[in-house]
Description:
Blueprint: E1 20-22, E2 29-31, E3 36-37, E4 54-55, H1 106-114, H2 123-140, H3 145-165, H4 186-196, H5 209-212, H6 214-225, H7 227-232, E5 234-238, E6 241-245, H8 253-266, H9 278-294, H10 300-317, H11 322-325, H12 330-335, E7 347-354, E8 363-370, H13 379-392, H14 416-434, H15 445-448, H16 454-465, H17 470-477, H18 479-482, H19 494-503, H20 505-513, H21 526-550, H22 555-565
Antiparallel strand pairs: 1-2, 3-4, 5-6, 7-8
Helix pairs in contact: 1-2, 2-4, 2-8, 9-10, 9-14, 10-13, 10-16, 17-20, 21-22
Amino acid sequence: PICVMSHGSSNVAANSWEWQGTCNECAKKTQAPRDVFCDNFGSSRGSFPACLNTWCPGCYKDLTILRFPKQLPENDEGLVWRKKMDEERFDLARKGDTLFAPFQCDFCWFVNLKGRLCNSRQVEDRLCIAIIRRVNLDMFWSRETSTIHGMYRIYEQARRSSDVLGIRTSIHLQRKPWPLVDNVGFGDAMLLLWQSLQGGKTCADFQQFESIRKIRSLVTTMQQARGRETMDGVSFKDGTKSSTLFKTTSNSMLFSKFIKGCEKRMGRTIKQDAALALEVLVQIMRNLEKELEEVDDQHKRHRDIVMLGNFLLIGFCDALRGNEVFLVESSSLCKYNEQGRPHKRPHVLVPLMGRFKGETGERNVLRVLVEVTKSGLEVRKWIDRMVKLLKGEGRGHISSSPGPAFCNKDGSMLSYQYLNSLFHDELLYKVQEAHPELILPEVEVAEVYNLYRSLRRGATSRASALNYSETVINLNNRWRTTQSNKGKGGLKKMSQLYIDVCLVLDALLDFSTYFEISSEGQSDTTGLYERSSKKRVREMSTQIVRDAIRGASHSESKEMFDILLRG
């Protein structure tokens, strides 16, 4: 049998807010705009019969043919907290929904997309109807129930007032039939939902919203690349900033409402890497140091230990992301290894070379680290080992071609997966077994810790715990903006960068210097606070002089002047 579009009486009122019909499910009388009416109600389009589809709000609900993912509150064991008020959330329409969303019924959308009527005997047609229903429901649920009910209540009050006055106002908007095409991206929304039902990396039953939303970006990019849309784009420019407006289906009101409702239903499952505690890193480095003494220099394990130890120290002490550590360049690392040793405040230079996210072109970056942190992390000692290893393998000389410092014997870059597996299998498991007070036994190490983010998050978390000033943290973490002009600084030489770095050397070294674990388990930042106090005194001294010149005499100036006199 064919899904008949005409249903119920054909006597349709001229005004859409006066439409009456019969529910497709329960056969009860329906009234617009309270109940769910198709925008094409009573209108025939092309050669197709007039649509008379209407539902009670509770009857227009999610079909059970497909099980679309819905995020529910749950605890760590995966047990769901089922709230009575949320039992039907996202599963059915509400009173007044079609007043505030562009709605076309399932069968009319089927005609638009397929060019024919729906045949319920065909599995493909039933699947399409189920997906269309889900798109419409997600569009409705872009607004919460309380918002819809509140707006509908205000609408009813405004209607009564206009009837009393006998006038037509903006609330008397006619609902007009849709064209027989998809010009709002409805088919793309269906594709996005179908993709969500495919197995993903995080869950075997469905994909996360973060994955499927990329289809919208794909559609937008492809439509902007078409000749007509490119020509029709309107550009605006204000000084150095410019923007271009394009008309794309993925930015239509319907699609925007759908994507918002879909995100609310699916939620965002965040699985970010846990911060690596400084105490854990110190224990890891002790284990590596001990094992390195027992392994022959020519053994493969010796090389792995040197590579991994340097990766951990550089990534943590400089708060780098895992992919950024791989940009350490071998020849420059060896060339500038001795540069910071005779300095009044000895330090280690770490050169990065390559393309950075969000920036244009290739770029060199020079980072500085303290030789030994107060927690005992021997950065200089480990980098010296890497330099010796690289030179012994024929890399790192002045005449050598640039290449990755974290490399295999043949010079190719080490894989992230290989180093990450060493991080898990050989190190963290050992720490977890020997020191359960540092990593709890129930922690799934391979799922919680990864080189990509754990080092950076551990460093910034530690800096916050030590009460580092925002200036020190930002100067270290926002090196992209300090060594370039919004990512467009060009390819500077390392020697030029070192001159710039020396101007703020103390502040840069402060970040890695004061990672200390005291005997009471508290961090010692006395040196950092002493310098901050001296800086404050200098600032107040300057202010006192200025006040004296102006003839000012306030209590704070006198008090600070007495402190200065006492030394």
